[in-house]
User: Fold this.
Amino acid sequence: MLAGTVYGVVLNDRDERAGLADAFAVSPYKAPPEAPVVYIKPRNCFARSGAEVFIGDEDVEVAATLGLLIGRDAARTAVADALAHVAGVCLALDVTVPHESYYRPVVPLRCRDGFLPLGDFAAFAPSILTTEIVTTVDGNSVHRWAPTRLVRDAATLIADLSAFMTLAAGDVLLIGLPYDAPCVRAGQSVTVTSGSLPTLKAQFNAGDAR
Amino acid sequence: MKRARIAHEGRVLWVEVAEDGEVLRLPDGGSVKAADAVWLPPVTPGATIFALGLNYADHNKELGFQSKEPPLVFLKGPNTLSGHNGTTLRPTDANQMHPECELVAVIGKPARSVSVVRALDHVSGYTIACDYAVREYLENYYRPNARVKNRDGATPLGPWVVDAADIADPQALALRTTVNGKTVQDGSTADMVMSVAELISYLSATMTLMPGDLILTGTPQGVHYCEAGDRVVCEIEGIGRLSNTLVGDKAA
Assistant:
């Protein structure tokens, strides 16, 4: 459903960074992160809005964010030019088995089959970057945040990543995750909205936890 | 059988490498000399690229790490790949940039909850990666972090994929890296902490592996810091020799 690579970043939430400042100073981290902390959601994760996500007995964390669709390769791109490389935007629900440590990559926890439901893409307009993202579980609004909370805003993030890794046309960049994202269990349904973007829905069901 | 991916007269083609290695057979029946080929990384677009850290007992000892569960798995983007006889950028401040010769397993059939015993049935072939790392850029967040391991063109791959049927035992292959002709890595896939079969079984327990997906299985000991201009050759028994040249930063 996507031709490109989906990149995301953790620890890009200002509120989260403030809360973890003491932890960053000690082992195993020893210093706060400098470069963006990047992960990839591989193709087995991709799911369309409305898809079932199969999980086991454990709760999973569901972090609503924006996926920026790159329209033109961004390599060594300046902050001022960065958003000109973005063609589209969608809502994304980054699903992970909850975990505490940021020391090692967590591929088997964050990259299970179906763990990235994506909404339909719309044309990108910068106003979406200041619009609240609302997560609803079983009809109850449970979480709200806005990308204004990001340590690196979308333009800075694209510029800093493009210093060493090209964001290619067709790639999708998940701009950051709220540290206080809600958890859901099997049987619950999640809806994500933001402004006029196409709504994203996902149904979490018990099944082969993968 | 060896299969390579090349750029040829304006198209990207998968070609067969003739027995003598001198000629590449094109899909239309024509051929080109291997010496004239523009080699591309032998990967299908969209493939997931898994990589393993700390998967050789001897390398772990060298770096001061204990072998431990679970395995250190990370992912790489297609931006990192480059073909045989290509170049890789050595940043001006990368005084601790070193090559890592790795056996790469190519998935041939979807794999989901596969047992160790059946795992190799899902491998279509093997190739070689030279997975450069820049140790100055290591940070203790999702380590090894993207600035170390997801750099543009810093993972040469190839020259070709050798059919799995032609590799009797992937855990009994000699690996070697030379820099300007001097051997800097000299190991064996027998020293892997988790075998190719064990890795496929482990990964397929939580993710469906798809045809074309790559698993870079880690590297043996031998950390050697390289300079711009160095010619780096990674060689694996029964597969071939992957050559790459480091170049300085033109923009610096």
